[in-house]
Every structure is written in C-alpha cells, then in structure tokens.
Structure to design on (437 residues):
C-alpha cells in the first residue's frame, strides 16, 4: 500500500516549514502532557523520601529538623530547582489553556479561530510565566 | 505537442524497415534525427541561458526522479528559469518548463481551473493545487515536489491508489431505502439540508488533505480527511434515511475512522476547496457519541 517515498532531509525540512498553528499546538500539547506525567512521578518519588518525618518528634518538626522539611529546604535552595519550577509552571499553564482549547474544539466551538486561540494560549502562558518569576526566584540568590 | 508528431511517423517507418539490413536511406534518416536532437538540445540550452540571465523570470526547483531511467534513479532537483507573465500559476510555469526545456518533466494536470483535482503538489513546503497557486504569492526559488507520504511514480506524479481506496471505503455514492410516496415524485432535499452539506460536496479528490495529515502518514488504515468528509456528505443528507445513516455511522466510527483525528487542522489549512474538514470530522465524532450514548 502507500508507503512513503523517502526524500531524506529535503522532505523533513519541508515538513517543518509546512507546519501551521494547529500542528504546533498538537506537538506542544503532547510534549507538555508528557512532561507533566514525568513531573508527577518525580514529585511522588522525591516526596516519598520524606515519609520518615511522620515518625519524628514534635520538637524536631517545630524546629524544622525533620527529613521532610530538610529535603524541601535544600531543594528550594538550589537555583536550578527554582528555574525548573518556572518551567513547570509554563508547561502546566500551556497544557491547561490549550487543553481547554482542545475541549472546545471537541464541542465544535471556535473552530474558525483555532489558530488565534492557540496564539492566545501561548501569549497568556508567556505572561503568566513572566509574572511568576519574582515569586519563584525570590531568595534563591 | 505538434513537434512530436513527425517523430512518431519516423519511428513507424523505422519499425517497418526493421527486417531489412540497414539501408543507406535509413542511415541518413538516423543521422538527420541525431542532428535534430542536437539542435533541439542546443536550442533548449540557449533558451535556458537566456532565461537565467533575464530579470523577469521565476526560478523553479523541481523534484526529479524516475526509477526506470538510469541516471534519474537518484532523486534530485532541477532548476528551471521561466519567463514570468502576469497571472502565472505554478502549473503554467511547470508547463512552460516542460514544453521549452525538458519534455520528460512529468506531472498530472487536466482542467487547469481547480476542478479536476489532478495537480496537487508540494509547493514551497505546503500542499497546493498547482493551477490555483499564483507564482506572485510565492517566495523564490519556488520548490516543487510530489505530495509527501505517497509513493513517487515519476517526477511529480505519486501513486494515488491508496487514497482512492480510502475514498471508496466509505461508499461515496447516494443510497436510500426511503422513497417518496408517488411513483413519479422527485426526491427533494430541503434548502437547509442542502446548505448543511454544501461545502462537503465540493471535494475534487486531489489528496492534498491526506498528504498533509500526520495521522494518515502514521496509520495507513486511517480513512483520512477526504473520505470522512465524503461520509459526512452522505450521513448528513436527510434523503438517505435513518437506517442508512446508522450504516454510515458504523463506517465512520470504526477503529480507524473519526477517532484517529487529533484536530491538528492541517487538512483544513491545505484544502484548495476550503472545505472545513476538521469541523466535519468533529461533528461526526459528536454524532457517533450521541448515537452510542442513549440517555435520552
Ligand atoms: C486543567 C488541566 C488539564 C487540562 C484542561 C488537560 C487537557 C487535556 C486534553 C484535552 C488532552 C487531550 C489532547 C487531545 O485531544 O489530543 C490532554 C492530553 C494529555 N494530558 Fe492533559 N490536561 C490537564 C492536565 C494534565 C495534567 C496535570 C497532566 C499530567 C499529570 C496531563 C497529562 C496529559 C497527557 C500525558 C496527555 C496525552 C498527551 C498525548 O496526546 O500523548 N494533563 N490533556
Ligand atoms: S477534501 Fe479538499 S484537500 Fe481533500 S481531497 Fe477533497 S478537495 Fe482535496
Ligand atoms: S489541473 Fe485540474 S485541478 Fe489543477
């Protein structure tokens, strides 16, 4: 049946140029969806290391000497972690906004403006991410 | 083309003379042919040089490939300089290149007015109908390739068989078992219903949408946008009746039917007849859900 004829790099480059809004939205949505899944498992794994804190004395917890608080504090002390948090927010916000766009698409709403709603998702994601930077980076230096 | 007719008669005399040993006259004719070919080549070269130097020409880079000709089995791009005229389409430019420089340049075309659907190509990185694409709207050099995700037969010609199979899989013809009462009464469609299916009837089977679809590229069994649009055209036609609509929906909602669509909108972007393909696919998805979830 129809097997694609390999035109090598020429075809690959051409196809990138061909991509329009809806296609980029799809790629970004895949990407962000899987990044969120990846984060979810990392999140669970890291927090699990803090489980012994459940058995710590009340005094240790009040003083912030338990494993849980120590883990969080040391992680938040790293600039890299702060930057990754900004990235995570960007990824999550885009996935939510574009996800809403896709749900509307499924309901047949706003199909004529599908490219504009994608650009709007991008711009809004950018704005929210920039606005979040002070909160995430505060005290990291 | 008129220039080819004398050549054909020459060839037929040749076959008649084949049984006899090479005569003097034949040798002379062969020599004449060889010289004519030389002259033609020289003229083509001169034309090409002149055009390349000219300001008001368009540069075309055209994909060339022919598995049957030695030296063309390795795909390559040929450059043609075509004199620009106002209103020139990509198809016009290709025809000029073929008629003036290289008569072996192969592509499909017929109506030249976006009706027959034979000349969908990949122009500057997008699926376009060559006869509906103005050169003046394009960046130069204009790169012309055969449709992606289809087997190339020769130059710009791809094998459309798979596309046609998918189109036929949805039974693209009117079927009904609901007839009007009177024997000679017409089977009328009301205006609103005609309006609903209007855009979907415009498909010219060019295959541009299928070629642009990422999902179709990865799943050979996916019906593809054009076939689903065809199914929409009949499923939404009220004259077909309820029973027929059930049958239509069964085809539409099969595993490789509407649910493969990921709303990338590529098909809608490229369709030369401006059919809102994604909209139709989405509507059929909702029809399929409504059909299966019977809460009301
Ligand atoms: C308000 C929040 C969210 C909304 C509105 C949303 C919306 C969506 C929608 C509509 C899809 C289907 C895309 C399609 O039709 O092709 C999707 C896919 C997906 N989402 Fe979400 N989502 C949200 C949150 C999340 C979260 C928190 C995660 C991860 C933990 C996640 C992971 C994924 C993944 C992995 C996919 C599949 C991607 C693929 O197509 O391969 N989403 N999301
Ligand atoms: S739906 Fe549009 S792009 Fe697809 S085959 Fe028909 S006319 Fe061509
Ligand atoms: S030649 Fe008929 S559609 Fe272009």
């Amino acid at each position: 049946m129809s097997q694609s004829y390999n035109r090598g790099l020429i075809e690959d480059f051409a196809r990138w140029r061909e991509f329009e809004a809806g296609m980029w939205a799809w790629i970004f949505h895949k990407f962000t969806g899987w990044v969120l899944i990846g984060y979810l498992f990392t999140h669970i794994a890291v927090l699990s290391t803090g489980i012994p804190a459940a058995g710590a004395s009340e005094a240790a917890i009040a003083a912030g000497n338990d494993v849980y608080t120590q883990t969080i504090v040391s992680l938040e002390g790293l600039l890299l972690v702060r930057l990754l948090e900004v990235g995570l927010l960007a990824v999550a916000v885009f996935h939510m906004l574009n996800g809403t766009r896709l749900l509307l698409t499924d309901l047949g709403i706003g199909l004529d403006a599908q490219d504009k709603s994608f650009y709007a998702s991008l711009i809004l994601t950018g704005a929210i991410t920039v606005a979040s930077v002070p909160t995430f980076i505060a005290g990291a230096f | 083309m008129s220039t080819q007719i004398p050549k054909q008669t020459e060839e037929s005399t040749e076959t008649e003379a084949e049984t006899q040993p090479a005569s003097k006259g034949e040798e002379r004719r062969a020599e004449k042919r060889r010289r004519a070919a030389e002259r033609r080549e020289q003229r083509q070269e001169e034309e090409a040089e002149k055009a390349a130097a000219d300001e008001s020409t368009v540069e075309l880079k055209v994909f060339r490939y022919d598995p049957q000709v030695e030296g063309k089995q390795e795909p390559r791009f040929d450059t043609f300089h075509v004199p620009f005229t106002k209103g020139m389409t990509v198809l016009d430019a290709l025809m000029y290149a073929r008629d003036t420089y290289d008569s072996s340049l192969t592509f499909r075309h017929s109506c030249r007015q976006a009706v027959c659907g034979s000349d969908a190509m990949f122009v500057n990185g997008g699926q376009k109908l060559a006869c509906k694409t103005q050169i003046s709207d394009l960046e130069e050099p204009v790169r012309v390739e055969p449709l992606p995700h289809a087997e190339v037969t020769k130059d710009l010609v791809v094998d459309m068989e798979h596309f046609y199979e998918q189109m036929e899989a949805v039974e693209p013809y009117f079927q009904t078992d609901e007839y009007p009462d009177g024997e000679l009464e017409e089977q009328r469609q009301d205006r609103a219903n005609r309006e609903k299916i209007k855009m979907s009837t415009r498909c010219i089977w060019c295959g541009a949408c299928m070629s642009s679809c990422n999902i179709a590229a990865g799943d050979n069994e996916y019906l593809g946008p054009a076939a689903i649009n065809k199914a929409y055209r009949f499923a939404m036609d009220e004259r077909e009746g309820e029973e027929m609509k059930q049958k239509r929906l069964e085809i539409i909602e099969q595993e490789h039917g509407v649910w493969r669509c990921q709303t990338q909108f590529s098909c809608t972007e490229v369709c030369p007849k401006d059919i809102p393909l994604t909209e139709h696919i989405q509507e059929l998805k909702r029809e399929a859900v409504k059909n299966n979830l019977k809460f009301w």
